[in-house]
Amino acid sequence: MREDFHMVPEVAELFRGHGIDQAGIWLGDPPGGSVDAMRMVRIALSLDETHDVWKVDLEGKGYYLKRRWEEPAGSLLRMLFFGRKPVSSPIREVMLAARLKEAGFAVMEPVAWGEWRRRGLPAKGFLLSREIPGRPVETIHAEGDAACRRDLLFRLGCLTGRLHVAGFFQHVRLKDLIETEGGELVLIDREAAKPWPRKFSWSLAVVCLARTLRRTMRDGHRFAAGEASAFFRGYTGEVKGRSGLTAKEIRRSAMKRIRRELGG
How do residues 118-130 score in pLDDT, each as one tens digit? Predict the structure, then answer.
């Protein structure tokens, strides 16, 4: 099995000073168990136990570790279908983060990642990203008053519109964002089957909006009418020039698809 391991220069010296110079240390149980100075807490484990997430602290610096041991055949076939080299989901997340940053979006910062390949196909992989100082947006939404929530949804609509215009149609739920002290919304948890931008398409955009709302509601969030209006006000301001539709048509088209997605 072939191993591919990367660390960004800013953290390489810190990690190597603690003996972290190979990818395998991140796949231990617990990961990094041989490093006394490292504190590890598992914060998520998938039901099928094929991937998990850990909070990592080393010398006062925080990171998040994602690991996957099995890659669904469908995701690998999808990349082959689009003429791309199949890679594991942590590596796809690294690729997408790099493209989002190049396009001018605030996004999580990968600092180390690795992949193991068997017979040319990814078998397992990991991603370590730097912790972003700030508050989870889903917490802000849950604890904020009506005005705060409307403002938050307006800014989320603007961000979603900018992403769609740039060709990024991945879901952005409340739990996928951190708000910094300066009020910037930073994208985290960027797993994607297709980690590359595509040409803007209103049909792609409306499907993405509907499925994002469905997943957000599945997370337990509900939006008041004023919040939905604020979201679409921000969103239409960004996309109306590209969609060929008026603000009313954008909202009507999106809501029709949303009702269909929710079975209503």
Answer: 888 888 899 999 9
Burial 71-91 (b: 16+ CB within 10 A, else e): beeebbeebeeeeeebbbbbb
Spatial separation of the C-alpha atoms in residues 189 and 97, rounded to whole Å: 9
Q: Which residues contact 217 (CB under 8 A, 6 or more apart)?
A: 262
Only one residue has tokens 């307006």, namely 154
> What radius of gyration do the chain's Cα atoms show?
20
DSSP state of 107: B
| Domains detected in the chain | 2-130 (3.30.200.20), 135-261 (1.10.510)
Q: What are all long-range contacts of 238-246, with beta carbons under 8 Å and residues at least 24 apart?
A: 238/157, 238/158, 238/160, 238/161, 238/162, 238/164, 238/165, 239/161, 239/164, 239/165, 239/200, 239/205, 242/165, 242/200, 242/202, 243/202, 243/205, 244/202, 245/202
Distance CA 85, CA 76 (A): 8
pLDDT tens digits, residue range 63-82?
A: 999 999 887 777 777 777 77
Q: Map tokens 């094929």 to a residue.
A: 50
Q: How many CB atoms lie within 10 A of CB 30?
A: 11
Q: Which two tokens stand for residue 27?
A: 């796949």
- State if pTM tops 0.85: yes
CB 62, CB 55: distance < 8 Å? yes
